[in-house]
Amino acid sequence: MRTLYLTFKYGAILLWSSFVALPFLWALTTSFKTANGVTGGATYIPWLQYKPSLEGWKVLVRSGGQGIDIVQPYISSIIVTLSASIISMALGTLAAYGLARFTYKVGFVKNSDITFFFISQRIMPPIVLSIPFFLMLQFLGLLDSIPGLILVYVALLLPIATWVMVDFFSNVPKEMDEMAMIDGCTPVGAFLRVVLPNSIPGIVVGGLFCIIFGWNDFFFAFTLTFTKTQLLPVAVVALNSSVTPWWSLSASALVSVAPLVIIAFVVERFLSSGNLAGAIR
Amino acid sequence: MKNFDIRIGGVPHLDDVSLEFKRGKLYTILGRTLSGKTTLLRTIAGLDTPQKGELTLHKKEFLSLPVWKRGVAMVYQQFINYPHLNVLANVTFPLKRAHVPKSEAKKRAREVLAKVGLSQLEKRRPRSLSGGQQQRVALARALAKQSDILLLDEPLVNLDYKLREQLREEFLNIFQGQDDAIVIYTTTEPGEAIQLGHELIVMDEGAVIQQGNPLEVFNSPSTIRCAEIINDPPMNILQGSIGGGDLNLRGKVTFPAPNHLKGLSDGPYLFGLQAADLYIGSDITGKVELSEISGSQTILHMRGGIGSFIVYEAGVHHHSIGSTIEIEIDKNRIYAFSVDGELICPPTITSGQGR
Amino acid sequence: MLGLKHKHIFLLPGLIVLVAIIIFPLLFTIRVSFSSWDVVKPGLDWIGGQNYTRLFEDGRFWEALRRLSFMAVGSVLLQYALGFGLALLVWRDVLMKRFVRVLFLVPMMTTPVIMSVVWRTILHESLGPANDIVQLLGFEPVTWLSTAGMAMVSVILVETWQWTPFMFLLLLAGLLSLPRDPYMAAAIDGAGPFRTFFSVTFPLMAPISIGAIMIRLIEASKIMETIYVLTSGGPGTATETSSYYIYIRGMRDYQIGYSATLSITYLVIMIISLTIIAKILTRNIARD
């Protein structure tokens, strides 16, 4: 019975692992192909079934003509994602602390309603906001620009930051905050000097979520940028025509998702050392 | 003369309270859990706000000050320290907020740490310390502030027995030096309350029910409720009456009324007896319902014709459940309460002298 | 106690930013939905509720909504079942626990659109590995993206690959923080693995399960990018969901007014349904 269970267990794990790895492995091997590795049907093993080449990768850094130049969108994505994440975490953590510790009341609106308002922004499908954002950025002269994108992304990431931090703060006993105030800190002082330094796990999780959602957004970058500014996902999808060869496509895809995959491994390290257990609740 | 006056109302869990604290004295507040002690301290600190009333510290209005301007020092019963700072930084934290110059702050912190015996542990983080040590850090931080008001909310309750005894003694030494401050210490243990304070305040269900010199309060609790709180084990309360010069307990036992009660008018009363004033002898009989050993004494829970009662027996003895024992009452130590629970007449001699 | 000023410093900055960036566009969209702004007649006019009556009779919109519900609920439940199963497998002792757990996490961290691009090459009927695998198993090649039914399956497949890790992460964290006592009690009572799961694990995990499902439902209802890359809503309209339809009307046909109407209606329907679902689910735990 036990061996049956073990076979099942590791069999299932193997199966799912293969499923997970499939796109990566496929993209990896395809990125080294050239025409004859693709047009005759699917091929898998380099040297055996096709002749590997670095063409798919070289094209990434070449600009103009055949080139794709992924470097520019890469940098733009980094700037926009980091800026928006930092701003969202700053505003969101502040708001979350307020919501978790104090009571607000304006007419019939209470804390839980305000929190719901923040979180419910996520229900909004990007479509609904795309045209208004388009017009708004046009009005501000920020279309097709990095600051414009940062502005929009803050709107998207702020609810996430707030949601994570409200949950985190609710689970932190307030005695320490009180002690800080008794010791002479104003509420803001207590927050900055005492609460924040002890909230690192929550901030890491929140920041991570912001970075993930920011880096991976496609739709807003798609509708709000054209030629001057391009973010990574847009750049890659733009290649998704029948003209672009599969090998450059695969190489760009891999290079674009690599950073977050690496972060996944780094975070796992952090997770194992027990720091995050409390933050994820 | 710095006085701290409290006259407040409208705080949840707290009745209207009117108290006056004098500088240089140590006050203990004794009460069961949920009696309002913590709420009172929090109100003084500013964490809870009364709807009405005033708090005055040396003639200056205190109530309108927010928490961080009150300059109160407080020690919680959970060991609260700042985990991200080492011990020295923990103690200098409030001083830095008060803009005390760095060197001066460090000097003061070190003095206080020496007083609580933690000089070696300056660089350590609170998490790596034992419970007792963590609480000492909290205490050091509170003392370093040299506040006018020092509040301690059951600071020893989360420590083990031996540590509590040890720290209690240290407290007495530490508080000797606090001539300028008003120290308010809350506890649920009568023994601790009587041992520590200059003045005792008894609270129950949000109200102050008695205050005064600890021994006086102990010897003359103003109500039965007070007697219950201040005696551990609780005072025995027996129904009875006085008539014709005799004292009668539940109609079962009668004897001539003791001297100090001779002047009372005839009628029904509730009589109080501390467990220490009942001992093996030959006045009444009772069946043992439970026998506890506490320290080097035996506590017998018994039931007899006069009702249930508790007896202290010196030494460790074994009595089987259901066995019948004869108990003698130290009649000169009987408290007389009215049927409503008010103290009418306490005994004139203190415990143990009747034998 | 803390004075009006202080607590507001915390909430207001974030709240103001959010309101400014979200509320105004939203109000604007509502206003636009009452206009007939399109390529021919750009600008804000007022046509009353004409767009709304049009929407009411717009079969394509309701079709898309039906499709979306099916797709969203189906894929979320599938992700839930798989995620829970995987979490249970690697919950306690397993070889290379850390590596396996990270691996399972990875798809969630990738950019969905980009992975969809890769999946498109995988699901290519003649040049991609998907049909190679299918034929290896002895089946006929599948028309992954060119038949209505299979196209839906393909989308759900890709979504499942992408988001099961999310369920896995949340449910694993939940499992890891479960108390030990009920399990000891169950063991003492002689409960087998299935019994233990249904009587102990599943009920204890109810709050987290509901949270995870709700979050995924909210995100899944917005699905658009995968469809844009994989099928462009096709073949025909077989995989056209509400978001995609709104995109077509708005960005492709440039019927700004009508797409605004679609957007608002869709938003309201979403909020109402999600709230109802949330209430039903939470009331069920409360009853237990």
What does this 3D model show about the protein?
- The complex is a heterotrimer of chains A (281), B (355) and C (288).
- Chain A has helices spanning 2-31, 35-38, 55-61, 71-101, 111-120, 126-140, 146-170, 175-182, 187-195, 200-215, 219-224, 232-238, 246-272, and strands spanning 105-106, 109-110.
- Chain A has 281 residues and is mainly α.
- Chain A has a domain at 71-238: MetI-like (MetI-like fold).
- Chain B has two domains: 2-230, 3-Layer(aba) Sandwich (Rossmann fold); 237-345, Nucleic acid-binding proteins (OB fold (Dihydrolipoamide Acetyltransferase, E2P)).
- Chain B contains eight helices and 20 strands.
- In chain B, the strands form four sheets. Chain B has a six-stranded mixed beta sheet with strand order 6-7-8-3-9-10, with helices on both faces.
- Chain C has helices spanning 3-32, 50-56, 59-91, 97-109, 112-122, 129-136, 148-176, 181-188, 193-204, 206-220, 225-230, 242-252, 256-287.
- The two termini of chain C are 39 Å apart.
- Chain C has one domain (57-287): MetI-like (MetI-like fold), CATH 1.10.3720.10.
- The mean pLDDT of chain C is 85.
- Chain C is an all-alpha fold.
- Helices cover 75% and strands 0% of the residues of chain C.
- The chains are: A mainly alpha (281), B alpha+beta (355), C mainly alpha (288).
- Chains A and B meet through helix 8 of A and strand 6 and helix 2 of B.
Secondary structure blueprint with pairings:
The complex is a heterotrimer of chains A (281), B (355) and C (288).
Chain A: H1 2-31, H2 35-38, H3 55-61, H4 71-101, E1 105-106, E2 109-110, H5 111-120, H6 126-140, H7 146-170, H8 175-182, H9 187-195, H10 200-215, H11 219-224, H12 232-238, H13 246-272
Antiparallel strand pairs in A: 1-2
Chain B: E1 3-9, E2 17-22, E3 26-31, H1 37-45, E4 52-57, E5 60-61, E6 72-75, H2 87-97, H3 102-115, H4 131-144, E7 149-153, H5 161-176, E8 182-187, H6 190-196, E9 199-204, E10 207-212, H7 214-219, H8 224-230, E11 236-243, E12 246-249, E13 253-256, E14 267-273, E15 278-294, E16 297-304, E17 307-314, E18 324-329, E19 335-337, E20 343-345
Parallel strand pairs in B: 3-8, 3-9, 6-7, 7-8
Antiparallel strand pairs in B: 1-2, 1-4, 4-5, 9-10, 11-12, 11-14, 12-13, 14-19, 15-16, 15-18, 16-17, 19-20
Helix pairs in contact in B: 2-3, 2-4, 3-4
Chain C: H1 3-32, H2 50-56, H3 59-91, H4 97-109, H5 112-122, H6 129-136, H7 148-176, H8 181-188, H9 193-204, H10 206-220, H11 225-230, H12 242-252, H13 256-287
